[in-house]
Design goal:
Cobalt-precorrin-4 Transmethylase, domain 1, Methyltransferase, Cobalt-precorrin-4 Transmethylase, Domain 2, 8 helices, elongated, 2 domains, about 20% strand, 5-stranded mixed β-sheet, alpha/beta, 5-stranded parallel β-sheet
């Protein structure tokens, strides 16, 4: 805590999860903020400019300064420049490539730096694939773990999935993870082959878009659907394991 009067604020700005009109998910307050912010920290400057141009018609994109989180340097960014802007009273926005910055996203580095410097951090309302899929899964929403991507190594991956099963069945804790879209079907087959057929799997695909699909079934039925030709190949998806009775 401390006196941050006169200092700029760090705004955490959620971005759409799929191809939808900005008015369908972005509150008016956020759109107004996008119209006045001049400084941003982003993952990719090109896609960020495209998003801002689409969201705020008439915005002078050339007047904006965008600092990138450099993925080749541990997602570093020009920290001192950003902190100096905030000390001078300039507001700064942080945007992810999709969803909420700071949640399964490198933007958390900027957030913790601001807290250490005594700056005010302002999270804004917006879509999160983790929370939306959890809400719609029917699984325990009080105890859950998000893993991000599972290990690539076969032995480590198998061990991780068996641990997910144990925590889901024994503790009732929802297990959440993602996969590269081209491996979606392979992952579901892997879950069906390795884990208990009584364990439930929820798959949320193309969240917030007109193509959205959310399905929760025991693995025994997922296996039958795959054999029947079901496919989520190359579609953005998030996967959840649970008991189905919490």
């Amino acid at each position: 805590m401390g006196n941050n009067e006169g200092l700029g604020k760090l705004y955490l700005i959620p971005i759409e999860l799929g191809n939808v009109e900005v008015e369908q998910y972005q509150p008016q307050r956020t759109l107004e903020l996008l119209g006045r912010l001049r400084y941003y920290v982003v993952e990719n400057a090109r896609t960020a400019r495209r998003y801002l141009s689409r969201s705020v018609p008439g915005l002078d994109i050339s007047s904006l300064t965008l600092y990138e989180l450099d993925k080749h340097q541990g997602y570093s960014y020009p920290r001192e420049k950003v902190m100096e802007l905030l000390r001078q009273g300039e507001d700064v926005g942080v945007m992810s490539e999709a969803g909420c910055p700071g949640v399964a996203d490198p933007g958390h580095r900027v957030v913790v730096d601001c807290h250490r410097a005594g700056m005010r951090v302002v999270p804004l309302v917006g879509p999160s694939s983790i929370l939306l899929s959890l809400m719609a899964s029917g699984f325990n929403g009080q105890y859950f773990t998000f893993y991000g991507y599972l290990p690539h190594d076969r032995a480590s991956r198998r061990q991780q999935l068996l641990e997910c099963q144990r925590r889901a069945l024994d503790k009732g804790e929802t297990q959440i993870f993602i996969e590269a879209p081209y491996r979606n079907d392979q992952l579901i087959r892997e879950l069906c082959d390795l884990l208990s057929p009584a364990l439930y799997l929820s798959v949320a695909v193309d969240l917030t878009t007109s193509e959205e699909e959310i399905t929760t079934l025991p693995l025994s039925l997922w296996s039958k659907h795959l054999k029947g030709g079901l496919s989520y190949h190359k579609r953005p998806a998030i996967f959840l394991l649970g008991r189905g009775d919490d």
